[in-house]
Amino acid sequence: MGGVDFAVSGSRVVDLTQYPGKVTWYVAMTLIAAVMGGFIFGYDIGISGGVTSMAPFLEKFFPSVYHRQMDDTSTNQYCKFDSQILTLFTSSLYLAALVAYFFASTMTKKFGRRKSVMFGGIIFLVGATINAAAVHISMLIIGRVLLGIGVGFAIHSVPLYLFEMSPYNYRGTFNVCFQLTIKFGIPIANIFNYFFARIEGGWGWRLSLGLVGVPAIIIIISSFFLPDTPNSLVDRGREEEAKTLLKRIRGVENIDPEFNDILAARNEARLLQNPWQNIFKRRCYRPQLVMSILIPFFQQLTGIKAIMLYAPVLFQTIGFGSDTSLMFAVITGVTNVLATCVSIGFADRWGRITLFLEGGFEWSWGRLGWLYPSEIFSSEIRSAGQSVNVAVSMFFTFLVAQVFLGMLCTMKFGLFIFFAFFVILMTGFCYFFMPERKNIPIEKMTQMWRDHWFWKRFMDDDSLIGANEMTRMEQCCEQGLGRSSFAEGTFKIHESMSYSLLAGGKRVRPIFCIASCELVGGQESTAMPAACAVEMIHTMTLMQDDLPFMDNDDLRRGKPISHKVFGEDVAVLAGDALLLAHGHQCIQ
Fold it and tell me: Which residue intervals define the domain Major facilitator superfamily (MFS) profile in the entry (predicted)?
């Protein structure tokens, strides 16, 4: 077989420590913007409960609740804050965030990460301004809805922007910083509420609601000076610009290993079609679908989110004064931060399930309720799985926030028995149905489900093959894109990815997908379309050990290797990818 130049591979094991890079000012500014985005989310969680417990705020916007609070001297204090409009002030943010999250996904893909982050910051600022200047309940609700839109954009775009801009060796640390700033935002909001409630004249609530605009301004200013991410530019076909930008962001010249893998990730993403159809219709993805629904469902029904949202209100219903209630809310928020640090420090050492079963909320269901689902989605369903997880979480946060005070009035202390019932239920679910994820790489997820006493029934070979055999060629054919035959010849591969199906420990029907190639030989060279797919004519079953090995160094140098399979000349990449040089077919 003639010269074959292999540039990148989607299936090879990449040593990410080879990615050189420094913490440049681009990275530092990105971290600042991300920290502000996380802080706003946490601040919005903590601020509403304190504001709704302030008498001047209630007197102005919710006079019926205010008079009920002032006039009720009985020992039954459970109903004095019962108002559907009052709870809508809190809950509307999460319903808006749910809707905005899906719009943010589309906008991020089309216009880039930076513009999405900037838009979220602008919406934050507008919402905070309207809330601070509110003179009518409608302004409060509109402001909260706008803040919810900002939250939807923030939870989608900010972590993605931070991940793609950060050097590899700092990504884990920066992600932890983002998580912690969410938690820090809650007690800081409670502290502000405590001091602003003491301002004479009763206008302190305006400061509480308006100060969220400060981090929003920082996000907006940062986004003006920051570029889009190289990944986003590559996704939109601007490869050369992305490569130049990556050199500036990393502060080094040798960015080829990372850039090649960005290209490989882009090409792989193009091959992953219909993730929603996969996760809902394929049996082998049933475990991930169940986890993406039940984990956020149980997370909200621990009741802790309601306590964080309404902590000062709850403390007042059991007899504490306004100032004391706000101080206890501060203590609750600080405790949550410390518990989150426990989860960050010990989740990998003790295991996820151990912390889930132990049950201290912020070091188990609080943080791990987001972490565990994100670790179990394979690439072909990750986008859909994460969206389901976020949607369920936001919907039930909205629902719990909306009905909590009404249920407290109706059920009184029985409400906490209600939450305790779900804690027992989720503990049983965790013990019997959630396998330990500790020290299991994403490539071994299928085997993890195969080994589980319950989920293995969904992991039959036919289901697995059916889930993976939708190659780009077949998907293009389904979409009505024609199939073209090319003359025999030798291909020079510029960008490539390799895939193969797994069944019974053997590799079945190897497939090699080409992102950029040209036919060489004969009288002229013919450029082939991007994202064409070359498929083996023969359906074959091969053990990996039967194939020659090619390491990453050979790969980067473009060293070809030849091997005979059923009399056909093929090139073997990293031990498992096969490219047929003759009798091929390509998709336009």
Answer: 30-438
Predicted confidence (pLDDT) per residue in 414-465, tens digit: 999 999 999 999 999 999 999 988 777 666 777 888 889 999 988 865 555 4
Nearest to 475 by CA among 319, 339, 187, 271: 271
What are the CA-CA distances from residue 2 to residues 203, 320, 562 (Å)? 78, 82, 9
Which stretches of 251-285 are DSSP H helices? 256-271, 275-281
Global pTM? 0.75
CA distance 81 to 64: 9
Residue type (1 letter), 318: I
Cβ atoms 39, 184 nearer than 8 A: yes
In the chain, what's the furthest Cα-to-Cα distance?
Answer: 97
Taking Cα atoms as reference points, which of 588, 424, 434, 447 lies closest to residue 514?
588
Angle 150-156-157 (CA atoms, 0-180°, nearest 5)? Answer: 85
Is residue 7 within 8 A of residue 558, CB to CB? The reply is: yes
Three-state DSSP class for residue 495: strand
CA distance 326 to 198: 11
The answer to whether 53 touches 190, Cβ cutoff 8 Å, is no
Strand, coil or helix: 112: coil
In this structure, the dihedral spanned by the alpha carbons of residues 392, 394, 399 and 402, taken in order and rounded to 10 degrees, is: 180
498 vs 510: CA distance, rounded Å: 8
Six-digit token pair at 464? 């697995």
Judged on CB neighbours under 10 Å (0-12, 13-18, 19+), 230 is buried
For 161, the token pair is 């922007």
Alpha-carbon distance of 442 to 446, in angstroms, equals 9
Asked if residues 85 and 140 have their Cβ atoms less than 8 Å apart, the reply is no
